[in-house]
Write a structure and sequence with these properties.
The chain has 201 residues and is an alpha/beta fold. Helix content is 43%, strand content 11%. It has a three-stranded parallel sheet. The longest helix is centred in the first third of the chain and has 12 residues, at 7-18.
């Protein structure tokens, strides 16, 4: 959702690139994420702008509007189908970068088994993460998920989250983990203070 994008998202993308797992990372801000209630997120146009700002200084990053420009809820299966249409020319393999918590819930995603026909899943995790434990959980809930289509990418611990950032911003406090351009943009539009006020009223 990138609500807002922060240092943890960027660290995950760099871990994928620096580890040789991909040659390019495409950030895809969600339009209407089906797992979040309406009114509990900043507008997609703002989230897209912030994502562009946060990724400007890395030529191997780019930002796609595939979900932002689509009507209705944005599901991963639809995004992967669009990605194939837009990107796959010759021997190109797509991978979806995902966190450990989201990977554990992959069985709840729409058309989940078919996701693995369209992409590998790169699970970004701390080096001390319990890979065997998550694979066992996937075996219980997602036995159709191919073992060789899931890879674990170690990344350094970045102690920041969108939830914590929103809490700071709602109180008018500085939020660690934001790139300066994004922090300036948020301040300029009063994004998360307005969101907090609308939720409370």
């Amino acid at each position: 959702t990138f609500d807002p994008i922060h240092a943890g998202h960027l660290a995950a993308a760099h871990a994928v690139l620096d580890g040789g797992w991909a040659q390019e990372v495409i950030f895809v801000p969600a339009g209407i994420p089906p797992h979040k209630p309406a009114g509990a997120r900043v507008d997609a146009a703002h989230r897209w702008c912030m994502t562009v700002m946060a990724t400007l200084d890395e030529p191997r990053f780019r930002v796609a509007r595939w979900e932002v420009d689509r009507d209705g809820p944005t599901f991963a299966i639809d995004t992967l189908e669009i990605a194939h249409q837009e990107l796959v020319r010759g021997p190109v393999e797509l991978a979806w970068v995902i966190g450990t918590d989201a990977m554990a819930l992959i069985h709840t995603w729409r058309d989940a088994p078919r996701l693995f026909d369209l992409a590998r899943f790169l699970v970004v995790a701390r080096a001390d993460f319990d890979e065997a434990g998550l694979r066992a959980e996937l075996g219980r809930h997602s036995p159709w998920a191919p073992y060789d289509k899931i890879a674990f990418v170690p990344m350094p611990l970045v102690d920041v989250s969108s939830t914590a950032i929103r809490a700071h911003l709602a109180q008018g406090e500085p939020a660690p983990g934001l790139c300066p351009l994004v922090a300036t943009y948020i301040h300029r539009y009063g994004l998360y203070r307005q969101l907090a006020e609308s939720v409370l009223s």
